[in-house]
Amino acid sequence: MKAMIFAAGLGTRFKPWTDTHPKALALVNGKSLLQRNIEYLQQYGITDVVVNVHHFADQIIDAVEQNKGWGSHIIISDERDEVLETGGGLLKAAPLLAGDEPFVTINVDVLTNLDLNKLLSFHKQHRSLISFAVSNRKTARNFLFDAKNKLCGWRNNTTGDEKGPHLSFSEEEKQKLTERAYSCVVVFEPTVFSVIRQKGKFSLTETYLDLAKDHVILGYDHSGDQFVDVGKPESVKVAEEMFE
Predict the structure, then answer these.
(1) pLDDT at 139
(2) How confident is the model at residue 66, as a pLDDT?
(3) What mean pLDDT comes out for the span 123-151?
(4) Beta strands 110-112; 151-156: pairing state
(5) Domain boundaries in the chain?
(6) What is the pLDDT, as a whole number, of residue 75?
């Protein structure tokens, strides 16, 4: 099985570190976020890993080479010409992720102890095109799911903006939807590349909502697991208290 770590972002929320470094190399108890996620995947036997790069790309490539991939086979997906966001980055890496098995993606700035085997079993049991981890933590934006954990929509809790198939639901149906926060750990079937309609620079959220009407996209609730979005410098302390 292969995996991809999204590490190309500009990390604007993580300044001043990202003025001179990529966020992927920010340290949590002496280990970079990139190393921690490579080692996280290793726990589940995943050692073929694609890493996309853009912001201070050379620093990431040097770190991978100097540390011999921290024991994994790392393939660089080079986005130095233009950062493509998660959706565009995934599409660019399609040839590197090709195969018959599902593959996993994770954002480099997410740390979690989610049992990946349970997410994979959930994905295979329900034969979904895409399955991603979610939880009931408080966030500014939520995905919306029906009683069968099927993705139905998205809501920005700050602006009230909503997108997705649920917009055509009755008010009664909308009331039954459950809000969950996206945890940025995802399992894809390789056939997803044949149905993605977006091109260029785009977010995976666009793809999920576009495909949700006609394909099975499920949320796997892992509420209760340790999870930190290391998006801002102050979140490093939170992460260091959770992860040794």
Answers:
(1) 95
(2) 98
(3) 97
(4) unpaired
(5) 1-109, 114-225
(6) 98
Percent of the chain residues past pLDDT 90, beyond the cut: 99
In whole angstroms, what is the distance from residue 122 CA to residue 52 CA?
A: 27
CATH superfamily of 1-109: Spore Coat Polysaccharide Biosynthesis Protein SpsA; Chain A (3.90.550.10)
**Tens of pLDDT, residues 62-112:** 999 999 999 999 999 999 999 999 999 999 999 999 899 999 999 999 999
Of the options 3.90.550.10, 1.10.260.40, 3.30.40.10, 3.40.140.10, the CATH number for the domain spanning 114-225: 3.90.550.10
Residue 164: C-alpha distances to residues 59, 116, 239 (Å): 38, 27, 33
Count the Cβ atoms, other than its own, within 10 Å of residue 223.
13
For residue 208, the surrounding DSSP H or E stretch is helix 204-211
Name the DSSP letter for residue 146. Answer: -
13-33 average pLDDT score: 97
Q: Which two tokens stand for residue 78?
A: 């080079």
> Quick check: do 1-109 and 114-225 share a fold?
yes
Which phi and psi (to 5°) does residue 211 adopt? Answer: -85, -15
Scanning the structure block, which residue is given the tokens 């080079």?
A: 78
Between the CA of residue 124 and those of 16, 131, 149, 187, 231, what are the distances in Å? Answer: 42, 9, 14, 10, 31
DSSP 200: S
Judged by DSSP in three states, 182 sits in: strand
